[in-house]
Amino acid sequence: MTLGMKKIFALIAACVPAVALAAGGNVHLEEHRTDLHDTASLQRGAQAFVNYCMGCHSLEHARYNRVAKDLDIPEELMMDNLVFADKKFGELMTIGMDKADSKRWFGAAPPDLTLVARVRRPDWVYTYLLSFYEDSTRPWGVNNVVFKDVGMPNVLGHLQGRQVKGTAPVAVGFDTLTGQEILEEHDDVLYLAEEGTLNEEEFEKLVFDLVNFLTYMAEPMALERQSLGWKVLLYLTILLVLVYLLNKEFWRDIK
Hints:
Residues 5-24 have low confidence and may be disordered. This protein is α+β, with helices and mostly antiparallel strands. 48% of the residues lie in helices and 17% in strands.
């Protein structure tokens, strides 16, 4: 095996753990149908992030004014509802929590979430936020199916309700004769033991909006990049036609 091939295999081997981590291991990931054109969803997601996540997690690579511009949020409305403390409109979306203190409280400093949707993928983040369950053996009283022994409290727990992990009936098919689902008892199933302030549909919508916002945050230029891509393809198509006609003209008199 040549030195070049060895380097390629070494690079592939180094990437495998990262890919496995981003995919969430063997856990089934719920699909997050990201829609960056849904400005209302992105606005609600921004509000959810500021209200429930920004106490511990920063977005230190983003600025308030850029988010307001991209999400069509007027400056006054942004400052009144999404910018707190003594922050200014053009400042980065950082937080005041000291990293040394947060490491002592949580065991590790809560990470910045600007790029989390690119590092983990939207499906992973979406499933993670839906997969907290009660676990009395953990310091915060919760665990997570996607991220085992997570050190983060379930900040959305009061909205979702009491989700537990145990034995519960699971739909495994459909009986066409009776018109009813076929249920079987399965272990290690997540189910809602007590509803929170939101019903299941409302909670999933809130989490969807939150992940939608984090997906936008990971690449604010995504829509512009896509728009530019179509323009480039159109330009290349027109250029191809012109080059073809020019080539035909050059070779017209050559037998």
